Amino acid sequence: MRCDTLWHHAKLATLDAADGGLGEIQDGVVAARDGRIVHVGPADAAPAFDAATRVDCAGRWITPGLIDCHTHLVYAGNRAGEFEQRLNGVSYADIAKAGGGIVSTVRDTRQADEQALIAASLPRLDAMLAEGVTTLEIKSGYGLTLEHETKQLRVAKRLGELRRVEIAPTFLGAHAVPPGVEAQAYIDEVCATMIPAVAAQGLAEAVDVFCEHLAFSHAQAEQVFAAASAHGLKLKIHAEQLSNQHGAALAARCGALSADHIEHLDADGIAAMAAAGTVAVLLPGAFYFTRDTLVPPIAALRAAGVPLALATDSNPGTSPLTSPLLAMNMAATLFRMTVTECIAGFTREAARALGRQDRLGRLRAGFDCDLAIWDIDAPADLVYRMGFNPLHARVWRGQDA
Ligand code: DI6
Ligand code: FE
């Protein structure tokens, strides 16, 4: 079999086993041609290869490249000062009154031009890539005007040209009510003006909405979903993070890809997600950073067969996290997710949360050849260690990246 590159003498976690497990192969090979996997399997059952390049993995582990399916990576400024103030006893309300909180990130992001936003975002992206990320979702949501939301989305797209990574851009105009604007008037503008413009310019493939008492209501989320669907965009939702607004059930009913956060999800929401195949995106970084105490209903989600994805939620306010590996460790320690669930959550199930399950997230012939090669003894090492990065190499579309 002809191929461009053959990785051999490797241990594989294909994430492509019929039992839904890691699909471990102790002595495996992966062959790629034109950026796609053409063969994956045990060495002793492999065909003879005519390979331009052979990479001896010396027994290292190969997993699919990691996929971070929920980030707010593009923004200017940060909220370290606010974090410090809160540690010194200043209340959230007082910080908000003084112009802090999400509004301060909106102000900084509006003031930044595209170059400045790129410069601010690249180090965060590079931190992700250094841990084996090969696909990353990026939401807008810190502009809150058409001009500044589209600027964020253009920057997200540009990051995908500056680095060897696939970016999935999501329009999150409905992230917060902009200062001085009435919530319903803003949502009307999101639906009537912003979504059509974003769709026409091809700047996003999905639309997200923050459905919460301090953001947008269930009815407003439904309005956003209707506008997004009318323009052929996929749907995602921030649901049940701080209270139960039944946003996940709405997402399921509307055919959304995922419902994200879901700490306050109830049994009806779980049943609706299971019936519709809606992915649960769990965000342990935000849970940890906000010192939340209500754990998402993992056992019930698992029992109902809801697909479980994991993501960093990288954002300046509630999850200043750029480490998928640490997110896996948090998911295990805080949410009691298993090693298999943690790794699947950042590969196979994350691909599903982005509608890319037929092309990414597994080692399988025909899939894009995005790999992470790790200096580890066993897959559990990826989840077990804290603040240690065992990535040996990152492969994107069949090439060392
Ligand atoms: N949920 C959150 O926790 C963040 N956004 C969201 O939809 C908050 C973002 C921020 O504070 O900047
Ligand atoms: Fe988020």
Describe the structure.
- With 401 residues, the protein is of the alpha/beta class.
- It folds into 2 domains: 2-65 and 362-400, Urease, subunit C, domain 1; 66-353, Alpha-Beta Barrel (TIM Barrel), CATH 3.20.20.
- Helices cover 37% and strands 23% of the residues.
- It is built from 15 helices and 16 strands.
- It has helices at 80-87, 92-97, 102-111, 114-129, 146-162, 183-200, 218-230, 247-253, 267-276, 284-289, 298-304, 324-335, 339-345, 348-353, 380-384; strands spanning 2-13, 24-33, 36-42, 50-56, 61-64, 66-68, 133-139, 166-174, 206-211, 234-239, 258-261, 279-282, 308-310, 371-374, 391-396, 399-400.
- The strands form 2 sheets. Strands 1, 2, 3, 4, 5, 14, 15 and 16 form an 8-stranded mixed sheet that branches. Strands 6-7-8-9-10-11-12-13 form an 8-stranded parallel sheet.
- Helix 4 (114-129) packs across helix 5 (146-162).
- The longest helix is centred in the middle third of the chain and has 18 residues, at 183-200.
- The radius of gyration is 21 Å and the shape is globular.
- The structure holds 3-[(4S)-2,5-dioxoimidazolidin-4-yl]propanoic acid (DI6) and fe (iii) ion.
- 3-[(4S)-2,5-dioxoimidazolidin-4-yl]propanoic acid is lined by residues 102, 105, 175, 210, 238, 241, 286, 315-318.
Number of strands: 16
Rough outline: globular
CATH-wise, what's the superfamily of the largest domain? Metal-dependent hydrolases
Indicate the mean pLDDT: 97
Helix fraction by DSSP (H/I, runs of at least 4)? 25-40%
- What compounds sit in this structure? 3-[(4S)-2,5-dioxoimidazolidin-4-yl]propanoic acid, fe (iii) ion
CATH architecture of the largest domain: Alpha-Beta Barrel
Instruction: Classify the fold: give the CATH topology of the largest domain.
Output: TIM Barrel
- Rounded to an integer, what's the Rg over CA atoms? 21 Å
Question: Total domains, how many?
Answer: 2
The proportion of strand residues reads: 15-25%
- Biggest sheet features: 8 strands, mixed
CATH class of the largest domain: Alpha Beta
Structural category is: alpha/beta
First-to-last CA distance: 24 Å
Please count the helical segments: 15
